[in-house]
Amino acid sequence: xxxxxxxxxxxxxxxxxxxxxxxxxxxxxxxxxxxxxxxxxxxxxxxxxxxxxxxxxxxxxxxxxxxxxxxxxxxxxxxxxxxxxxxxxxxxxxxxxxxxxxxxxxxxxxxxxxxxxxxxxxxxxxxx
Length: 128
Known about the structure:
A hairpin with a 5-residue loop joins β2 and β3 (100-108). It contains two helices and four strands. The chain has helices spanning 2-9, 15-65, and strands at residues 75-81, 84-94, 100-108, 115-124. The radius of gyration is 30 Å and the shape is rod-shaped. The longest helix has 51 residues, at 15-65. It is of the alpha+beta class.
């Protein structure tokens, strides 16, 4: 009978063991929550950069298609892509080779004024 009483005392968890396991569980949950939040943030940034690259590619294509003195001056504007508004700037950069220059398209977010993406293309044409 004495052995039965001793077995019952050793069968459960102590309060310290339960508290330590709860602490470990809480730290694990916090780590997983932080990882999930960072993943969502990174996905949003990638989505914004993807739409910004579409705007940049569109502006390069438009600049190449212009028929009357297409590269005479820089231009700026806004364009929407993916339900978001982006600001763009198209600049012509002279090179050492006559009638050969570089187009630089910078796309930024109006909220932060940070350049999200920049595209470059080399083109030939009549300089102004």
